[in-house]
Amino acid sequence: MPTVIALSTPGDALLKARAPYDSTGSELFLSLAVYDDLGVDDVAEIAKSVAATFSPLNVWVHGIGTFQGENLILYAAVLMTPELLELHQELHHALQHVGPSRPNYTPGRWVPHITLATVSTAKKAVSAYSELLATPLTGEYHGRELVLVSGPPPTVEERYQFRGGT
């Protein structure tokens, strides 16, 4: 079961858009690092320490994208800002001694995104994409905490507020 370190990204429009494709009712988040061989306890203190050094930051969603693989993943594309890049790099630097994150989450390869739908066929992807395009997803969301997520299904295990976050 993977452990995910993520930025919590509340957003009613994103939750509403994702609802038809997610039966878990889990909250949305922007994954910063994913570890297949580590548990929440292995990364908790480091995540808490990193969160304490950052102020809340804004996340801008600017469209929809797709990752291809065994399943097709449709996501809200997130703008890479200097603040987001700094958080991502600092987190990976602090975690470098605990083991490798999945390669596609490492600095230089990471594509910031918020997963909205995971579908198994191109036909379902086209349908989901059409529905998502009709939903106003672009906008600014506020990241106030790091969350540690286990799953599936995605379950938030710990929350660490950023400095000054409420």
Low-confidence stretches: none
Q: Which structural category fits the helices and strands?
A: alpha+beta
Question: What characterizes the major β-sheet?
Answer: 4 strands, antiparallel
The tally of domains stands at: 1
In the CATH scheme, the class would be Alpha Beta
Task: Tell me the number of helical segments per DSSP (H or I, 4 or more residues long).
Answer: 4
Report what the structure shows.
This protein is of the alpha+beta class. The protein has one domain: Cyclic Phosphodiesterase, Chain: A (Alpha-Beta Complex). The protein has helices at 12-18, 40-51, 82-95, 122-133, and strands at residues 3-8, 29-35, 57-67, 72-78, 113-119, 139-143, 145-150, 155-161. It has a four-stranded antiparallel sheet with strand order 2-1-7-8, with helices on one face. Strands 5-4-3-6 form a four-stranded antiparallel sheet, covered by helices on one side.
Short summary of the structure?
The chain is an alpha+beta fold.
Walk me through the topology.
Blueprint: E1 3-8, H1 12-18, E2 29-35, H2 40-51, E3 57-67, E4 72-78, H3 82-95, E5 113-119, H4 122-133, E6 139-143, E7 145-150, E8 155-161
Antiparallel strand pairs: 1-2, 1-7, 3-4, 3-6, 4-5, 7-8
Helix pairs in contact: 2-3
Keywords:
single chain; 4-stranded antiparallel beta sheet; 4 helices; 27% helix; globular; 166 residues; Cyclic Phosphodiesterase, Chain: A; alpha+beta; 8 strands
